[in-house]
Specification:
The complex is a heterodimer of chains A (371) and B (297). Chain A is of the alpha+beta class and 371 residues long. Chain A contains 9 helices and 20 strands. In chain A, helix 2 crosses helix 3 and helix 2 packs parallel to helix 4. Chain B is mainly α and 297 residues long. The chains are: A alpha+beta (371), B mainly alpha (297).
Amino acid sequence: MASGIKLQSVRKVFGGNEVIKGIDLVIQPGEFVVLVGPSGCGKSTLLNLVAGLETLTSGHIHIGEICVDNVPPRDRDIAMVFQSYALYPTKTVRDNITFGMQTRKVPKEEQATAVQEFSKLLQINTLLDRKPGQLSGGQRQRVAMGRALVRKPEVFLFDEPLSNLDAKLRIEMRTEIKKLHQRLGKTAVYVTHDQIEAMTLATRIAVMDNGHIRQFDVPEVIYEDPVDLFVAGFMGSPPMNMLTGQIRRGDRMYVETPSTEGQDQLRFPLPGRLADRVSAADGHKVVLGIRPEAIFAKGSELPGSERFVFERPIDVVEPTGPDTMIVFDVAGTDLIARVRPEDAKPAGTPFLFEVDMDRAKLFDAKTGLRL
Amino acid sequence: MRQRSIDGIVRPKGVHHSLMRILLYAVLGLFCLYYLIPLIVMISTSLKSLEEIRQGSLLSLPRSVTFDAWAKAWSAACVGVRCNGLAPYVWNSVLMTAPAVFISTLLGAMNGYALTKWRFRGADTIFALMLFGAFIPFQVILLPMARMLGLMGLAGTIPGLIFVHTVYGLAFTTLFFRNFFMGVSDGIIQAAKVDGASFFGIFFRLVLPMSLPAIVVTVIWQFTQIWNDFLFGVAFTIGDSNPVTVALNNVVNTSTGVKEYNVDMAAAIIAALPTLAVYVIAGAYFVRGLSAGAVKG
């Protein structure tokens, strides 16, 4: 049975600088929670607080049933994987893995069995007598994982463990971490700034910004139902298109883009569901959020009820293989559309874009909150 | 040390460049000679007989090599009024240098480790104050230290000299280790904390083995400083407890009898040999240690 983690109004101040500004978070036993946010948002600090590597300024942390506010890291029944791997350079892989057991005076036979089991699982059983300096990046990563796994702790903490790996290896290790979690069923807290890692690994994602948690929910909701502009802008790659405009009420509700020279204004019709919910007055400043995949070439997808078609010249074409990104300009903002490669046209040609307004999100321009 | 291949370097060719290279090596050779001549003179003089020194020129090589002067310097030269040679004083220096180097290096390593990896309030201030110790002119502390050693009952003894060298070495050893540990990833210490190791457990089992380059640099530095020290030796020891540097002075500056240049030279080389030996043995590490911030995890 894994332990859950409970944070109660956790605050951390570094020399007058408040880094964590009162965070409440309940992590269920066996969950895989990813803390994601831009650099400097406090996610690593929060993880270090859970690990006990930093002291709380105020608030409480529980791991399982135990309040660990004054418990040193070694007694918290945690294991941690660090961004820099933090392998002990003078020790062999075997000693790196068993160091934690050695300090805890675990019997030699038990150590050997544990090394056997996990080195095989992580495919490092041929490397046991090497020093970390003789290993490749991916191998070091596996050893660091092994060192965390071997003690069978209740909670795993990961501090951007994949950010030093090359792209291909990162995807491999990502899958492997997910497999390991499914197999072991232990609670895990994982810090990353990579929103794709967050989406793929998490059972729930906590999006952090500036010492606060903006939203804590399952990946699908974070992506499809962001609470504010920050979450919407942070999750997704390429990022969500953000178009400022004004609410116009007529026979139906529109978002009207500002007028710019040489371009006619666009009026994005809001679908009924969204229009019913929004009480904002005529002329209210809003941000219309449309993900790139909700803009495509006219007629390239099955017809839907809430479609809006407009024409704009293509500025830039960026093929990625499966899709082609088309950058174009609306009222001075660069927008990105994700189209099928066969629909793409060269830069400069006028192009008919179709927007699925059912998937559009509306935010208040002033507060950033979702409408 | 690792030799890098220089085959691949592209060099300009032509008469002009060849001449410039010849000039370059000529200048380098000249400087080399300039540095080496005193040593050559010392060695060759120490191998001559007193007779030959009086007749020959300073730069000429010995006609017949004799080790008499060395033997005399080692076991029969007169230091003050006693004529037992330098041997007992070399032993004094060893007895003083070895513990002083060991203790100051170990404490410096602990200081550096605590100052960088267990950050506490005021760590930078304490470090700045310790650094100050590296800039104190030693003449300033002679009198207060003499009084202090007197109070401690260590005046005129080798343990007293060890104490002084340890205290005044700490500024440098702390500086060396602190700067080395700044380059060691904090993650390693954090990982060890999570793994359950204690302050000293991490220090002795992880940090110290990692800091071999820093240890070598510090040991060379401290050994050279302490072995070569004259001021503390002459101020805080008397007669039998003199280190070899003070004894050498007493041999060379004797005002009675004939000036035995060959014995003086041999004695000076004997006093300098240990530091030379340390450089030769550990010199490669010295160079490597200076650029060894990069211990990758």
